[in-house]
Amino acid sequence: MKAAWYEKFGPANEVIKVGKFEKPTPGHGEVLIRMKTSGVNPSDTKKRDGAFPDLLDNGPVIPNSDGAGIIEAVGSGVPHSRIGQRVWVYQAQFGRLHGTAAEYLAIDSHRAVVLPDNVGYEVGACLGIPAMTAHRCVFADGSVNDQTLLITGGAGRVGFYAIQWAKIGGATVITTASNDKARQDCIAAGADYIVNHEEPDWHEQLLKMTEGNKVDRVIDVEFGVNLPKVLDVIKVGGVIASYSSTVVPEPALPFKRMMFMDLTIRMVIVYAMPEEAKGAAIKDITETLEKNDLLHRVAARYPLDKFAEASNKIEKGGFWGCVVVDIS
């Protein structure tokens, strides 16, 4: 089969290879998927850069956790009725070497979720990390009905879905955006209010919009940078759910202030989500896909031969939406 892989860490242009790779066979409880698309996420590029130094100890890595395709064969213990199903895949390259950037993928059957017929394979490549992370951030601490949520970076891959989940859940959504394109995307997703996080008084603008009423929860893309101002706008007893802190990777916490606010700090990464949380996300994703109730954005598509360019696109940033590699 044809695949993209790397055998050492480094820049995509230097370490990514595309060529023939041994085709997998499905083991017990697994399905064999003919991949149509593969989604590239920041966690995939960080792995290639060496975020996990022992990743290559047992052989080359076929990258990417997200993707979509058609089940062509099943291993023992999996009903033959699954053959022919259109599916989207999550967690394909976590705790294992071979992900979705290949013509074929063998993976646990429950990691291959039925993709409704009305949904394209390119959308299927956007669901695993962005949509599931957003779902966990919004719903991990219970219903958001009649609550007010602040979602920082609402035009980002996770933020865009978080706005939609929050609105589906009955929340009022305030989000941050720094330019017209980002604002338009946040509005399309359903945001009720928008502030510019590049303005130093954005937190004060937020409180003016709400007439001094503070938010119940915050879903945050830059925990370390945003924390001081977040503490000014969140209610006592509130929840901060963060899935990233890139600019300040090791934030210092004002513990005493936060303790007396009785805050809950939740760190979210899709790989470590409890299985029941993954199941809840999959259920809601399936229902909304069937009803066409979720908006999706594909920012760029690349053929498998240009896999390194797709990775570079993610690392360069400055765009909104998912980056998809077309496998076949």
Question: Which short descriptors sum up this protein?
Answer:
six-stranded parallel sheet, Quinone Oxidoreductase, Chain A, domain 1, seven-stranded mixed sheet, alpha/beta, 328 residues
Describe the fold and architecture:
The protein starts with a strand and ends with a strand. The longest helix has 16 residues, at 275-290. The chain has helices at 12-15, 42-48, 121-124, 127-139, 157-168, 180-189, 202-209, 223-233, 255-260, 275-290, 307-316; strands at residues 2-5, 17-20, 30-40, 66-74, 86-89, 104-108, 112-114, 148-151, 172-176, 193-195, 215-220, 234-242, 264-267, 298-303, 322-326. The protein is α/β, with parallel strands linked by helices and 328 residues long. The model has no long low-confidence stretch (mean pLDDT 97). Strands 3, 4, 5, 6, 7, 14 and 15 form a seven-stranded mixed β-sheet that branches. It has a six-stranded parallel β-sheet with strand order 10-9-8-11-12-13, sandwiched between helices. Strands 1-2 form a two-stranded antiparallel ribbon. Helix content is 31%, strand content 25%. Helix 4 crosses helix 5, helix 4 (127-139) crosses helix 10 (275-290) and helix 7 runs parallel beside helix 8.
Category by helix and strand content: alpha/beta
Name of the level-1 CATH class of the largest domain: Alpha Beta
Q: How many structural units, i.e. domains?
A: 2
The percent of residues in helical segments reads 25-40%
Strand and helix order: EHEEHEEEEHHEHEHEHEHEHEHEHE
Largest sheet: 7 strands, mixed
The span between the termini is 11 Å
What is the assigned CATH homologous superfamily of the largest domain?
Medium-chain alcohol dehydrogenases, catalytic domain
Q: What is the count of DSSP helices, taking H or I runs of 4+ residues?
A: 11
Strand content: 25-35%
At CATH level 3, the topology of the largest domain is Quinone Oxidoreductase, Chain A, domain 1
CATH architecture of the largest domain: Alpha-Beta Complex
